[in-house]
Amino acid sequence: MAIATINPATGTTVETFPELNDAEVEQKIGIACERWRTYRNTGFDERAECMRAAADLFEKEVDVAAQLMSTEMGKTLAAAHDEALKCAHGMRYYADHAAEFLADEPLADASAVGARRALGRYQPLGVVLAVMPWNFPMWQVMRFAAPALMAGNVGLLKHASNVPRCALYLEDVFRRAGFPEGCFQALLISSRKVESILRDPRVVAATLTGSELAGRSVAAICGDEVKHTVMELGGSDPFVVMPSADLDRAVETAVAARVQNNGQSCIAAKRFIVHADVYDAFTERFVSRMRGLKVGDPFDPATEVGPLATEQGRADVEELVDDAIAAGATALCGGRRPDGPGWFYPPTVITGITRDMRVFAEEVFGPVASLYRVADIEEALEIANATSFGLGSNAWTNDETEQERFIADLDAGQVFINGRTTSYPELPFGGVKRSGYGRELAAHGIREFCNLKTIWMG
Fold first, then answer.
1. Annotated catalytic sites, by residue?
2. CATH H superfamily, domain 237-386+392-417
3. I need a surface site. Which of 131, 308, 333, 347 has the fewest CB within 10 A?
4. What percent of the chain has pLDDT over 90?
5. What is the 3 state secondary structure string of the chain?
C-alpha cells in the first residue's frame, strides 16, 4: 500500500509521501538509541512537564487534529474531536500518575531472604517499536506513547500507511512540547521494513494493534529475537441482552456500540445475543434505529456514520455479508453498498446466521450487526464464547446472579455490565485468546515496557 492520504469519502488521493530508505531508517534508530541513553535518566517531573505541554497542544489544536483524522480515515468530525481530547486526557493521566505507578516496591519481608532490604524497581527497557492502526490514529498511538515516554522509554512509530499526516502530527506535537529530539519518531515506511527493525538489537521491544495476521508476524519475529511484545488484535465482541435489562438503554447503547467509528473498532459490539423473551421488542427498535442513521460526509455535523477507511475494507465487509445472505441469512436493513463515490457501507443488521457462515467466526470491521435469538443464559454464553476472539464483552441484565455469571464465564479481557465497552486511561485494556496478550493503560500499561529489577541489599 502506498503511503498516502486518500479521502475515503471521495476516494481522492490528497497527498503521497516518500518511504524512508534504509539509510534514513538506520539513522532514526541510531538517534533513538542515543537519546535513550540520556532520556532514561531524566526525572518524572521533567517528563511530566513535557507531557502536560503536549496535552495543552492537543487541547489548543483540537480542531486541527480532528480534521486530520476525519480526512485520512473518515471518522465523523465529532468523533475525531472527542478522540483528540481523549489523547490529552490520557497524557495528563500518565503525567500525574507515572511516578506512583513506577515507585519502588517492597518485595518481601527482608529478613526472610536474609537481606537488610528487598525491593523491586521499575526501569525503562529502551527503544520500543509501535506498529499502529488507522482506526484510532491518535488515541491508539497515545495509549502506547504516553506511558512509554513517562516510563523513560523512547518510541518509534510505524503507523498505518493511510494516516501519514496523523503520524507526522504526533511526532511534531511531542517535539514542540519539549521532549528531547529522538524521543518519539514517526517512520513513514511500508510493512516490509518492519522485520529488519524488529531484528535490530537496538530495538528492544514492540507493541502492535491490528489484525491477527499482523500480530502473528510481529510476535513470531520478536519471539525469535526474544523481545517483549504487547498485542492488541481483533475482536468480535458479544452484546448480550437478558429479560431484566432496561431495553430502551440497551437498544440505544447497542446502536452506538455497533456504529462507533463507522463500525471500525476492535471493541465495537458485533454480535447481538438476545433472549427470546425480549428478542422481538429489541429487534424492532434496534433495526429501526440502525435503518434511520444518517450516512454521509464525515465533516457534516448531521452525519452519524461516515465511510469505511479503505476501499479494501469495504470490500471485506461486503464479502462477509454477501456470503451470509447467499447461505440463507437475512438482512433486516442495509446489506447493499450505495452508488456514488467514496467507500460507504450502510448500517446493516443480519439474522438467521448459522455456524457454517464466515460471519459467525470472522470479525466484521464495519457497521454490520449479527443478531442471535437465545433461549436462556446458557445458550447466550455458549454463542458469546464461540469465537476465537476475546477482547471485550457487554451484558445487559439487572439480575445480580446473572451479572455474576457473565463476569465469571464470558471469555474476554473486559466485561461491561449494562454499559458499552470502551477504553479509559484509568482501566487496563487487553484481550485473551486470539485478541492478543499484555495490557495497555492504567498502571499495568506503563509497566509493560519496564524491567522489574529485583534488588537484594545485605
1. 232, 266
2. Aldehyde Dehydrogenase; Chain A, domain 2 (3.40.309.10)
3. 333
4. 99
5. CCCEEEECCCCEEEEECCCCCHHHHHHHHHHHHHHHHHHCCCCHHHHHHHHHHHHHHHHHCHHHHHHHHHHHHCCCHHHHHHHHHHHHHHHHHHHHHHHHHCCCEECCCHHHHCCCEEEEEEEECCEEEEECCCCCCCHHHHHHHHHHHHHCCEEEEECCCCCHHHHHHHHHHHHHCCCCCCCEEECCCCHHHHHHHHCCCCEEEEEEECCHHHHHHHHHHHHHHCCEEEEECCCCEEEEECCCCCHHHHHHHHHHHHHHHHHCCCCCEEEEEEEHHHHHHHHHHHHHHHHHCCECCCCCCCCCECCCCCHHHHHHHHHHHHHHHHCCCEEEECCCCCCCCCCCCCCEEEECCCCCCHHHHCCCCCCEEEEEEECCHHHHHHHHCCCCCCCCCEEECCCHHHHHHHHHHCCCCCCEECCCCCCCCCCCECCCHHHEECCECHHHHHHCCEEEEEEEEC
| CATH fold group of domain 4-234+433-457 | Aldehyde Dehydrogenase; Chain A, domain 1 (3.40.605)
Question: Above 90 in pLDDT, residue 387?
Answer: yes
pLDDT for position 230 = 98
Residue 175 pLDDT: 98
pLDDT at 109 over 90: no
Would you place residue 108 in the very low, low, confident or very high pLDDT band (cuts 50, 70, 90)?
confident
pLDDT digits (tens, 9 = 90+) for 193-204: 999 999 999 999
